[in-house]
Amino acid sequence: MAMNKAIRFVMWNSQRLSHSISTKPSEVTHVKRNTVSDKSFADQNSQFLHHPKSSIPSKVFKKADKSFHKRLDEFRQTIKQEILSEILKSPHKLSQPYSSKATDQIAFLTKDELDKANENAQKRYAEILSSDPIPSMIRPGISKTEMNNPGLAWLYESPITFVDTSEDVSDQDRYIVTRHVNGTLINESHTERDKIHGSFFKKPEQIYPPFDFLDSDPLFSELLISDESDKLSMLDALPHCYSTDHPKFQQRFNQITDAMLNNTSLMDSIILSRHFIPMVERGLTDKNHDVSLLIHHLHSTGRLKIAAEISSMLFFKDKRTCRKGETFKAGQVLIINGKEFKIPADRRRMYKTHENNIKASLLCDVELEDIQYVRVEQTSPGENSFLITLKDESIAEALHNSGRGNRRFYNSQKFDIFPVKDQSELK
Predict the structure, then answer these.
(1) Centroid of chain to Cα 10
(2) How far apart are CA 363 and CA 400, in angstroms?
(3) Contacts of 266 (CB under 8 A, 6+ apart)
(4) Which residues touch 253 (CB under 8 Å, ≥6 apart)?
(5) Which end of the chain is more exposed for a tag (fewer CB within 10 A), N or C?
(6) What is the pLDDT of residues 20-55, one digit of tens each?
């Protein structure tokens, strides 16, 4: 059979493969080369033999926003350093897998306990440093008819699958086709390819078939809503069962991300783990996720720098933030609140000043004397914007995160804070 010498093909009955995943490699029959009986096969299939690469086109995936991803790289490094700093400041909390509270306490440990805590800290330090981003791309469908030749129907009693078994070929590039009994040659779908890769080309740490709790929708949903299930262990298992571009991987990762971003009791454990950065990145790049509750939790636990970094990414494409070459008015901030902000009557009586000034001092977390001027506008029903001028310019700059935009909270109510641009119409 005329083949590229760098490629080795094997074939087997595809029906047997589909119904018996436990098929052993010894059951695979190697194709005999350069035999008369193979000549017709070689003639009819020479088109695909010269193209052993996968039919997945490289241009299928969307082109990334370079400026956003450059900022995302900077964000990733900053967050890592903040988390590592928190871990190393409190090694006494690390005897447990994950800490559950802000780590600013002091404990007395024996030498053995301290050595163990430091060892755990170093392990988690290495884990966080090596955490890789998880792409959101889903592999495109590749199943297609390569050739229709009914004249070959008499050769086949059942479908036969032909697979490139070269040692240096990747799963993505491995060429897999099936000749059906009607003579049709089909480039196999991902489902069939997964069966072949999981059965015969399993990677050292790959788990195939995947765990039932990941593969079964009802079982997974039951575990996801359970307070006793370990969501981090579920995340740990995902990459061993599916490739990151597998639809099931993306579906499960999104479901776990959404569950953890909406449950404050789980946030401390995720923040001090290697899953935190990939999860936050997904929350920032996928409109179906909301990171507001996470930012609130970061503020309430004193992780202000991490909260500011996430906020800056959240508002990266917001026109109200400052871009390169733009400048903001010193001492001024624009604060947008989602609902009407009310001040109790007793507080108004206590301060004996305009209600807007009291609101501004609470939103900016400053004394009334630090506020120079406040202007309030109704941007939509039930929503007001506050244009606040502060006497201390450094406070204003910190509030709007040096022009990048910020999000803060007051009594669980979120307020988006932006710089006031020089070219803005706001005066």
Answers:
(1) 37
(2) 12
(3) 231, 259, 260
(4) 134, 235, 238, 282
(5) C
(6) 333 333 333 333 222 223 333 334 333 333 333 333
Fill in the amino acid letter for 302. G
Which pair of tokens denotes residue 160?
């036969």
The encoded tokens of residue 324 equal 């390169």
User: Cα separation of 251 and 417, whole Å?
Assistant: 33
Bigger pLDDT: 152 vs 102: 152
* Long-range contact pairs involving 88-96 (C-beta distance under 8 Å, separation at least 24): 88/121, 88/125, 91/117, 91/118, 91/120, 91/121, 92/117, 93/117, 94/120, 94/121, 94/124, 95/120
Q: Give the whole-angstrom CA distance, residue 46 versus residue 219.
A: 46
346: amino acid identity, one letter: D
Q: Answer whether 414's CB lies under 8 Å from 341's CB.
A: no
Residue with tokens 């509270």: 101
Nearest to 7 by CA among 156, 132, 177: 177
Per-residue model confidence (pLDDT) at position 306: 92
> Contact at 8 Å (CB) between 288 and 260?
no
User: How many angstroms separate the CA atoms of 285 and 301, rounded?
Assistant: 24
Sign of torsion, CA 150 151 154 155? negative
Q: Are 326 and 423 in contact (CB under 8 A)?
A: yes
Residues 386, 339 contacting (CB under 8 angstroms): no
Question: In the structure encoding, which two tokens stand for residue 77, read together?
Answer: 């490094």
The model's pLDDT over 96-127, given as tens digits with 9 standing for 90+, comes to 444 434 444 455 668 787 777 777 777 777 77
Dihedral Cα 286, 128, 88, 70, nearest 10 deg: -60
> Residue 290 class from Cβ within 10 Å (0-12 exposed, 13-18 middle, 19+ buried)?
middle
Q: Which residues lie across from 160 on neighbouring strands?
A: 13, 179
**Weakest mean pLDDT among 50-64, 257-271, 361-375:** 50-64
DSSP string, 38-75: GHHHHHHHHHHHT--S----TTSSPPP-HHHHHHHHHH
Beta bridge partners of 185: 147, 179
What CA–CA distance (Å, rounded) separates 388 from 397? 12
**How far apart, in whole angstroms, are the C-alpha atoms of residue 65 and residue 145?**
35
16 pairs with which residues across the strands? none
Residues 272 and 72: their CA atoms lie apart, in Å, by: 19
Residue owning tokens 């093909």: 9
> How, if at all, do strands 144-148 and 29-30 pair?
unpaired
Phi, psi of 57 (to 5 degrees): -75, 140
| C-beta separation of 295 from 310 below 8 A | yes
